[in-house]
Amino acid sequence: MTPEEAWFDREAGHLVRPYAITGGRTESGRTDYSLITLVVTADPRVDTTRLGPEPAAILGMCRERPLAVAEIAAQLDLPVSVVKVLLGDLADASLIITRAPVPLAEVPDLALVQAVIDGVRNL
Amino acid sequence: MTQSLVPGAVKILVAGGFGVGKTTMVGSVSEIEPLSTEERITQASVGVDSLDGVRDKSTTTVAMDFGRITLRDDLVLYLFGTPGQFRFWFMWDDLALGALGAIVLADTRRLESSFAAVDYFEQRGVPFAVGVNCFHGRREASAEDVRAALDLDESVPVVLCDVRDRASSKEVLLALLDRVRTGALAAAGQPA
């Protein structure tokens, strides 16, 4: 990809659309979403016909399994900050359930570390 | 569905200079094709739903590649390939927050591109391991050469690897996790 193509596809394309999708808002009122906050659609049978295409798409993709904020952003090809605004709206409407990352103290819990080790060994 | 049925997530960072194999490593162990997303980072946060004042802030777009490993029904590990360019590092606090640890991938032909990542994780106290990516099986330096060149503490694992190979990438991850475990044990007052 040439620098010009990168500029037009990635930068210019995103400078306009995200703000349009979020109604001009650049930040969610919620600051507690992280890249790996997991999102699940609260009610798999929810009617999404009255929602915008992006919120409807989020409810659709998080129906089957929980997805991280970063995964939703990648699949929608939108910046993470825009997705966080959309998720804030969906959470306010009780349409999604989210779970913050496993809290890590300065030193992580030994049981958690062992669970990760076991999981990676079994890959 | 209640919140307790949503799994928890942890993350490990994969850092290193451009072209050192970060995305390849993520892809070799991920259960999904590595995804790419981006975030616009502003150095000062606005905190309100307004574009007022945005002019005064420096904004940059940072791309991240990442993969997923479902460890258990209730635990998911995400691997994030992090931008290697030094000028993006002011945003690493976000990225490093809540990370179990980090892998610094190094290329023996340009070890200097790993210095910034090593410094960063040392300063932040983030446990890390160094993976020396031996492209196409070339082993041009020993782990001890790399340790000396990067001035690494004895406690930092250094693993020669080929990140295209899943087993090799797993080995690097496990070396890091062993280091994390040692730290957790020491903090709990138990011998490693």
From TrEMBL, chain A:
Pfam families: DUF742. InterPro entries: DUF742 (IPR007995). PANTHER family: DUF742 DOMAIN-CONTAINING PROTEIN. This is DUF742 domain-containing protein. It comes from Kitasatospora arboriphila. The lineage of its organism: Bacteria, Bacillati, Actinomycetota, Actinomycetes, Kitasatosporales.
TrEMBL record, chain B:
Transmembrane segments: none annotated. Keywords: GTP-binding, Hydrolase, Nucleotide-binding. It comes from the Bacteria. InterPro entries: Gliding_Motility_GTPase, Gpn, P-loop_NTPase. The keyword Ribosomal protein does not apply. The keyword Cytoplasm does not apply. Belongs to the GPN-loop GTPase family. This is ATP/GTP-binding protein. It comes from Kitasatospora arboriphila.
